[in-house]
Specification:
Layout (H helix, E strand, L loop, with lengths): L5 E11 L11 E11 L12 H20 L9 E8 L5 H4 L3 H12 L8 E5 L6 E7 L10 E5 L9 E9 L24
Parallel strand pairs: 3-4
Antiparallel strand pairs: 1-2, 2-7, 3-5, 3-7, 5-6
Helix pairs in contact: 1-3
Protein name: Amino acid synthesis family protein
Pfam families: AA_synth (PF06684)
Organism: Methylobacterium oryzihabitans
């Protein structure tokens, strides 16, 4: 089994009070957690990497828990989520894909009902690069008001031989959503789509 060596975890929370329109009665919280880990495959092509997904599962749960606590601790308040990976320059795009199961399933497990697939972004980048983590509604991917994103960046990460694994959650959609589409209160199907 691949050992997971964590260098640091960074949690960030934004409190959005308005976005140019009227002040919201309840601010929307948008949070992210970034976990910086050593990439055991940096600098070489390793044909078999899938075993690292199992090794990352406890970290996925730890990061999800830290993020939920930073957003107030109540799973019922979380409306949207996303995940992503930023691989250091000595790694491959596929190394970031190792986060799909450990990051996504951890959030879904922690939140209880979370029917929609967790949107994701993976890229290779230099130290200090930003990662735009896509966000959508946790129960119905077509809820247009919750199409959003959270930008994650850590000044000294990822180093060439590291991976930045990120999770994001929000307590609402865009502050003044008004472009139509399926609304949160119109979710009827339980297929994760509508």
């Amino acid at each position: 089994m691949t050992e997971i060596a964590v260098r640091k975890i960074v949690v960030t929370v934004e409190e959005v009070r308005h976005d140019g329109g009227p002040v919201l009665a309840t601010p929307i919280l948008k949070g992210s957690v970034a976990c910086i880990v050593k990439n055991p495959f940096a600098g070489r092509h390793e044909p078999e990497i899938a075993g690292m997904m199992d090794a990352l599962k406890p970290l996925g749960l730890e990061c999800s828990t830290k993020l939920l606590q930073a957003l107030g601790g109540d799973p019922a308040r979380i409306e949207a989520y996303g995940k992503g990976s930023l691989v250091g320059a000595a790694g491959e795009l596929e190394h970031g894909a190792l986060w799909h199961v450990p990051g996504g399933y951890a959030m879904r497990e922690l939140l209880g009902q979370a029917l929609a697939i967790v949107p994701s972004m993976t890229k290779v980048g230099a130290m200090g690069a930003s990662l735009d983590v896509p966000i959508h509604h946790k129960d119905a991917a077509y809820v247009r008001s919750h199409f959003d994103g959270v930008t994650v960046a850590v000044a000294d990460a990822p180093r060439a031989d590291e991976i930045l694994f990120a999770l994001a959650m929000t307590t609402g959609g865009r502050p003044h959503a008004r472009v139509g589409g399926l609304r949160q209160d119109e979710i009827t199907k339980r297929d994760g789509l509508r």
